[in-house]
Amino acid sequence: QERDDREGALLLIAMDAAVDEQDGAVALAVGDDDGKTERRAIDSGNGGHEPGGLLALLTAYRSNRYRTHSDSILVFAPVGRACEVYTNARSEIVYRRAMLWLVAPILVLGGVYLHHVLETWRERRRYPPPGELIDVGGRRVHLLAMGEGNPTVILDSALASTSLSWTGIQETLSAHTRVVSYDRLGFGWSDDTTVPRTVDHMEAELAELLTVAGIPGPYVLVGHSYGGWVAQLFTSSHSKDVAGLVLVDTPHPKEWAEPSPARRARAAAGRKHASRASWAATFGWMRPLLWFLARRRNASSEKAENGVRALLERTPEEIRGPLRSFWVQGGTLRALASQIEHASESAATVAACLGSMGDIPLVVLTAAEPSDERLSEQLEIVGLSRRGRHVIAKTSGHWIPLEEPELIVKAVTDVLDA
Contact, 140 vs 134, CB < 8 A? Predict the structure, then answer.
């Protein structure tokens, strides 16, 4: 059989055992270019019980002593038997390695996915929705109502947040009037949705939710960040039902309606990461990834401010479990990707509806140490109401509901008393 020089040493090992049982002579036939075949023998000179004959064969093979231009050597017994043993053994090793590389990833992926399915089932039992699930257009929306009285305070969360971000605030405000928090479709305990996550769809879903749940106006709307856009659009569409508005560090819509190249690139990266994470979550890989992200220490203060670890540390201990369970689900991340993808479109919708609010009480809360540009934009929103007021947080960044919740409580009670 034809062999490459690199296999000579391996072939020698297999041949050694076979030749040891023979009479010491290794016979082979060498075919030349003329098609003639000559039988030759290589003798070890010691009866064949030492590998001298094999070494001579290997040496002859590697030195081209018995090789012709056609490079064909026909090896007869016991060399043929040795080659057969060697070939079978090598094939078995290759097969086992191939099966290992094929089966091992399947077992790992299957194990991770099975763990995700079991943990999801356990989390749904461990963290049931604290409120009601209201059918809105065939999808269930989670709504939590506390307290009694009028007007009703509606709490709308940030871009990727849930009703849990209002936990302490809602309990405190419920001593004054009825307070409602909810999870937008795709987030928290609400169902997933394939409807694009644009602000006009969310505003329509909120209006339908309040109607189906039997919660009439008037309303005091409290919106954090992106939730402020929903609140502003609702105020524009249902101004007669709105008794007051509190915007918590809500960006001016023109920031996103005409984003700078840097902001546009950041949004594109965020959408891409959220979309990829949704696929990872579908197969259970967000659980180990979130575990890693929650424990890594960020190098810069900016990253630490916005990192997953820092955010979780700001939340009350009792709601961290449900929050983690939401962020390992593909539906949550797909909804986030959709919101980011349509951010400019949503901002343009809100910008188009901005106008005078008349005498509707308005409080605008801004994160500490705003830039001159941000301060100017926030004051522009304050000026939309003749009863507008601006408050700058003392120490908190964007997450005022978690860092200085008392500012929100004070702003809402001031609007209720106005």
Answer: yes
Rounded Cα distance, 24 and 16, in Å: 11
Neighbours of 67 (CB within 10 A): 14
Contact 59, 49 (CB under 8 A): no
Task: Convert the pLDDT of each residue in 138-154 to its tens digit.
Answer: 999 999 999 999 999 99
Beta strands (DSSP E) in 35-97 are: 37-43, 73-75
List beta partners, residue 26: 42
DSSP category for residue 76? P
CA distances from 225 to 68, 158, 166, 366, 398 (A): 82, 5, 13, 10, 8
Residue 418 carries which DSSP code? -
Q: Yes or no: say if 42 and 29 are a contact pair by the CB < 8 Å rule.
A: no
Backbone dihedral angles phi then psi of residue 138, each to the nearest 5 degrees: 90, 0
Give dist(CA 83, CA 158) in Å, integer: 71
Tokens at 346, concatenated: 């949503």
- Are β-strands 139-146 and 132-136 bridged in parallel, bridged antiparallel, or unpaired? antiparallel
Q: Which pTM value belongs to this model?
A: 0.72
Pairing of strands 388-392, 37-43: unpaired
DSSP E strands, 179-241: 179-182, 219-224
Q: Where are the beta strands (DSSP E) in 212-290?
A: 219-224, 242-248
Enumerate long-range contacts of 45-51, CB under 8 Å, 24 or more apart.
47/23, 48/19, 48/20, 48/22, 48/23, 48/24, 49/20, 49/24, 51/12, 51/16, 51/19, 51/20
Q: Which two tokens stand for residue 122?
A: 């356990």
Asked if residues 50 and 44 have their Cβ atoms less than 8 Å apart, the reply is: yes
DSSP lists the bridge partners of residue 37 as: 31
Instruction: Say what the pLDDT of residue 404 is.
Output: 93
Q: What is the pLDDT of residues 348-374, one digit of tens each?
A: 999 999 988 999 999 999 999 999 999
CA gap 124, 93 in Å, rounded: 46
